């Protein structure tokens, strides 16, 4: 009796084995990091539980404190066109875009008092945030999101992320990455 065997190309066998090893490694990494997160008291968020912020949807409400301890809520901005910028002092693109945000804020505030910017310092040390604000002379509101809960509610996956919100609290635009002054002004002028 003759048994017919099927041979597979060596490259396909090696590729399949490598894919299996990568899958096992990723599963182990996820399990070990979620255990560490649980032990440290950090929230565990998988991509499926993270909010996806959509243009045309209501912006998630939040209340955070300024660096001097004053509470600021998104609802405080009703009736104003708002820019919410998620940033960190350790983020090079955030550093790059800061002068553009300051210049856009100054220009927009001169012509429209119903414009507001809030910079949300995310997952950062308060002393570093204070130093960043002082060194850059940031004129708009800065609040601290030390545990990252607000950035999670907004679906922020990378920084900087800028969210444009109208006077009714509706998200009008989400910008991922550094933004330029001209882009900020163009978008804000289209928001009521």
List keywords for this structure.
192 residues; alpha/beta; Glutaredoxin; 2 domains; 7-stranded mixed β-sheet; 5 helices; 7 strands; globular
Short account of what is shown:
By secondary structure, the protein is an alpha/beta fold. It has five helices and seven strands, in the order αβββαβαβαββα.
Verbal overview:
- The protein has 192 residues and is of the alpha/beta class.
- It folds into two domains: 1-44; 63-189, Glutaredoxin.
- The protein contains five helices and seven strands, in the order H-E-E-E-H-E-H-E-H-E-E-H.
- The chain has helices at residues 10-40, 92-111, 126-136, 149-153, 181-189; strands at 63-66, 71-73, 81-87, 115-122, 141-145, 161-165, 171-176.
- A seven-stranded mixed sheet has the order 2-1-5-4-3-6-7.
- The longest helix has 31 residues, at 10-40.
- It is globular, with a radius of gyration of 23 Å.
- The N and C termini lie far apart (82 Å).
- Residues 11-50 have low confidence and may be disordered.
CATH superfamily of the largest domain: Glutaredoxin
Largest sheet: 7 strands, mixed
Work out the strand percent. 15-25%
Number of strands: 7
Count of separate DSSP helical elements = 5
């Amino acid at each position: 009796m003759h048994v017919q065997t099927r041979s597979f190309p060596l490259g396909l066998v090696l590729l399949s084995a490598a894919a299996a090893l990568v899958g096992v490694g990723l599963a182990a990494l996820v399990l070990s990091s979620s255990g560490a997160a649980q032990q440290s008291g950090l929230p565990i968020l998988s991509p499926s539980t993270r909010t996806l912020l959509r243009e045309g949807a209501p912006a998630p409400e939040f209340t955070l404190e300024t660096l001097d301890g004053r509470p600021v809520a998104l609802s405080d901005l009703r009736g104003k066109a708002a820019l919410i910028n998620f940033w960190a002092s350790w983020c090079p693109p955030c550093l790059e875009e800061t002068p553009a945000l300051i210049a856009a804020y100054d220009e927009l505030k001169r012509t429209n008092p119903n414009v507001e910017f809030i910079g949300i310092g995310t997952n950062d040390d308060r002393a570093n945030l204070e130093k960043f604000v002082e060194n850059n002379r940031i004129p708009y509101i800065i609040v601290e999101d030390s545990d990252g809960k607000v950035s999670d509610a907004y679906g922020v996956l990378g920084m900087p992320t800028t969210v444009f919100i109208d006077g009714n609290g509706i998200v009008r635009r989400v910008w991922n990455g550094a933004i330029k002054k001209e882009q900020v002004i163009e978008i804000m002028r289209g928001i009521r």
